[in-house]
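Box S1 | Example of a co-folding query
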Amino acid sequence: MRRNDPLIVGGGPAGTSAAISLAMAGVRPVLLERQRVTGDALCGGFLSWRTLQSLERLGIEGLEGHDIDRLRVFAGQATAEAPLPHKALGISRQQLDSLLLARAEAAGAGIERGVTVREWHDGTLETADGASLKPETLFLASGKHDIRGLARPRQDPGNQTLGIRVRLAAHPSLARLVGGAVELHMFERGYCGVELQEGERGNLCLAVRKSRLADYGGDPEVLLAAWAAESPAFGERLAFREKGCDAIGAVPYGWIARATLPGVFRLGDQSAVIPSLSGEGNGIALASGILAANGWLAGETADRFQTRLARATTRPIGIACWLWHWGERKDTARLIAGGVRFAPWLAGRFAEWTRISH
Ligand SMILES: Cc1cc2nc3c(=O)[nH]c(=O)nc-3n(C[C@H](O)[C@H](O)[C@H](O)COP(=O)(O)OP(=O)(O)OC[C@H]3O[C@@H](n4cnc5c(N)ncnc54)[C@H](O)[C@@H]3O)c2cc1C
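Box S1 (continued) | Returned holo structure for flavin-adenine dinucleotide
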């Protein structure tokens, strides 16, 4: 008996990797994506070697990014650098998501754009345009956005983490400053990742506690100016900023789905959220989509899949949370930078331990 093909909600790395994997196996899934035109999602855009392997497995070719082979850490006056264990890539999410969606469509998945899912109740999905859908299997891949009825647990409002992104204009001086490094600038109750992407345009992405932003009247511009005054290296990079600033609220770093509802496969950020300083969120999203597709094809239940994925994400997320925890305190952040300087090989080990294996 042939089961009904899964319905996928969300066209980011998690949803598209599931769509491609299913379509490559001859299944014809339908993917609903709320955006009509692919945007540039708020993300550091660091693709680890493990992420690049998954993309290759999915048949993604022609990535045009900026090669990254080093980690550079700034904490107070301390600076340290260490080689990454393997080559990584800096790339805009617009390019990545466009390539993944195109590949899913070419492989035979149905992509329906401009469809927003509003709510889930009693096995039924309601869309913003009034349609009701009753999928036998749902692949939930709405990423940073929760759907009513399937939302992740709410965080303690006093301790929430926000994501903020500004873009840096391509310039030879910026290229000289950042080069082939992914940079981590550590601050009290927050950090910032900087890297170059295609065309040597820069991406500067912050994860900051809401309480820290509140110290600056809740205004990201005031926070950025204060961090630039505190850290000359950060200020040097921020000097290249383009107009505009994107923000996202309440990122539940460290959360892992350990159970699910019957027929609901939770993928990507809807299954597990790794602190972004690890640069492995996209890797987990792609891996979860591939694992879910293969599990479903093999007749695995949603609950068994979720347990398997939770097991695979526990170590990388645990280590990344530990680094995040100690990195957002001034004294221990300096110790981390000191560790990177005196034992660069250890930084490489941590970079490996925060990858998902699948
Ligand atoms: C500040 C910050 C920096 C980061 N930097 C990095 C990094 O450098 N490297 C890295 O690997 N990871 C990074 N991450 C993590 C990474 O962005 C996520 O882990 C990854 O995007 C998860 O992919 P996803 O497919 O689950 O979700 P998403 O990428 O969020 O995609 C979800 C998709 O679903 C669609 N959607 C949402 N709601 C609905 C709905 N109701 N109906 C229909 N469609 C819907 C959205 O439009 C979107 O296309 C960062 C995260 C943050 C917050």
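The pocket of flavin-adenine dinucleotide is lined by residues 9-15, 32-35, 41, 43-46, 116-117, 141-145, 147, 163, 193, 205, 207, 248, 251, 268-269, 276, 279-283, 285 (CB under 6 Å). The longest strand covers residues 78-90.
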